[in-house]
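Repro:
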Amino acid sequence: MKKIIVVFLACFSLGQVAAQEAIAAYGIGARGCGEYLEYRKRDDRAAENAYLNWIDGFFSARNYYEAGRGGGQIRGDKTNATVLAYIDKVCRDYPLASVGWVAKQLADHYAGLAVRPNE
């Protein structure tokens, strides 16, 4: 019975990650959360800045896109420490997800949308 539960949980987790990766990301956003967490563990400031810059670009692109559609803009107190803390937590929760998917979840949060972790 334990084996069946383990297999079910593994398949369920893989299905969630597959759904998460339905949108193609480019650059550092295409990297996985596991790689991101390794950089954070080493306290690599250059990598940290690269991720933050990519996410700022992602947020800006999303705002431009949403402005043309009348959608919600990313607003709020978006400090680097807050962004990194969010990415750290979500990447620990979803280690097989991409950083781009995590950025989308954070963008939805800042835009006042409901965050949907299974999307």
